[in-house]
Specification:
Immunoglobulin-like; single chain; 372 residues; four-stranded antiparallel sheet; 3 domains; mainly beta
Length: 372
Amino acid sequence: MRTGGFLRMALAAGALLLAGAWAPAQNRSLEGLFDPDPTPAPLWEGEEPATSPGSLRIENNSVNFGRVEDGTRVPLAYEIENRADFPVRIVNIATGCGCTSPADNPREIGPGETATLRFEFATAGRVGSNRQTITVLTDDPERSTYRLFYSGEVYTPFRFDPPALQLGTLTHGEGAVKEFSLLFLQDEPVEIKNVATHGDQRIRVEQIGQEPYEHEHGTGTRYRFRATVPEDFPMQQFTTVVRIEHDRLDGRPQNYMIRGEVAGELAFRPNRFFLVVTEGETATRSLEVYSRAERPFTVKSVEVVQGDIPAEFVVRETESLSVKEIVATVTGPEQARTIQGRVRIELEREGEVDLPALEVPAVVVVRPAAGN
């Protein structure tokens, strides 16, 4: 034996007491020791050498699984040899994230025996470079904690061209039509099942075709889409997410971002009403409407047209006839929550008919009252 019997028993008892105090803090019992730990274990500065001190010897404590497709389930295995002349009990295994799940691993390694600890890494949604740590807690009197590592790259067979659709500033009344593509980099085409927009529903997106696509690794398919901003779209900034459903990656859709702004002679600043209010209390926020051409105008009406925003509006004149201040007063509802909506501002000017209205995004954050 490497240590005296009494000293070994004392150290082992201490390790078990430490593990017993630690495991309840993680809401685990000895029967559930192999559940993933949501708290990532800290990485060491360098990967721990296989010959580090301790009764257990890990043949290769760092696994690189290479490059795999998004959605692949990667098996991981680590061989551990017990070099001591007494059994070593595995008290707990903590994974660095919920994406790593342990198998039905042994809980004790006998003297001179070799055991294999097995895990599985679920790559779904983890595109890019990945590096994780697995912490193994034992009753080894020479060293209680061992760390395992794995790393690799997860890639997706989908790309967008361009990566996002930035429409910039559009002139009010003209609208816009732009195309973008979803590229699938593998030989066999996918089935596009549905295309929907989430955000401003007035922006229309439709699939207009598909064609072969040559890329650096072979042949794939280009799926072409057309986004249309209608001519009567109001003067405002907008963000729309296009959700493209298909039959790959276990049905997980591809999401595409469209951003832009419709502007005219009349505009507003800042770019939204944003207000934080406490339940039962009152708060105010102001916004300016102005003419880029510095021409006079009047505000005909201000009203909430989307969202249950409990706001009252007052229009105030400023030193300039081409600038108006709109003050929103909100009394916090009883239930703490975030309310999103839109405020429509109708404008008029002498000698002009149907002056375009402005629609302002609005966000009200209701905080709970003290004591709630």
